[in-house]
Amino acid sequence: KQEVTQIPAALSVPEGENLVLNCSFTDSAIYNLQWFRQDPGKGLTSLLLIQSSQREQTSGRLNASLDKSSGRSTLYIAASQPGDSATYLCAVNYGGSQGNLIFGKGTKLSVKP
Amino acid sequence: GAGVSQTPSNKVTEKGKYVELRCDPISGHTALYWYRQSLGQGPEFLIYFQGTGAADDSGLPNDRFFAVRPEGSVSTLKIQRTERGDSAVYLCASSLAGGNTIYFGEGSWLTVV
Question: A36, A29, A70: which is closest to A52 by C-alpha?
Answer without folding.
Answer: A29
